[in-house]
Amino acid sequence: MGSLVLFSLPIGNQGDITIRTKNALAQDGIFLAEDTRVLKDFLRTIGEKIEGKKFISFHEHNDQDRIEYVLQLLSENDFVYLTSDAGSPIISDPAYPIVKAAIDNNFRVLNLPGVSSVISAIEISGLPPYPFSFYGFLPKEKNKRNEALKNLPNGLSIFFESPHRIIDTLELIEQTLPEARVSVCREMSKKFESIYRFEIKELKKVKDGITLKGEFVLCVYHTKTDEVSSIGDQKLKDLVSKYLSQAGSKKDLAKIFAKITGEEVKTIYDKLAH
Question: What is the pTM of this model?
């Protein structure tokens, strides 16, 4: 039975490659890569040969036929190697389906540990490291991003973000999580690495200083009490009745509860109106 071997490539600085990974790349064999051209270029850069290796593309758009093909390769070879363009092939990259298929078919799955942008961002964020959750990229649609941010659990949340959307996302965080602390990690381990650490309420002061180029990892830390985050409709109506008995207005009350719950004023007002 063959073994599927996952290995990570550097996220920027090529000197971060591990000895075990470099030894694996020196072998002849079968290499599954997110983009085979990227892997070949990396091999040339570190002085490893390309001849004698078989390169196969494996990415998120591959279908079941490609997975079956890899399983066949595992049945015929001692080792099949799997990597991504940078970092871990399992973190926001396409390794999971083939890893699951390999395990389900009783093949061994091995790992050559290496650099992960998620862990690197946590280490240099200056924020409490646990509990933490990783979400990959936030939704492209602004309303879906807003909803995702509203529903973040307590603790540290990590996201990938693009340079053309990072400011917009930070502004959404400012609106939905006004007490949050953030760390914006740009181009980690590369020549022009930049780390921006601030409370989100300071965004207006610092956003013009953020260089909007390269790759971003965004860390967001916030806490909220269960009591506040779980206010239900009936509880809300009870509080409304008490407030109105003192001649308060629904609109003013909606503004108050919007601050408490993080919901939109209109959403709260609509609940009060029924």
Answer: 0.76
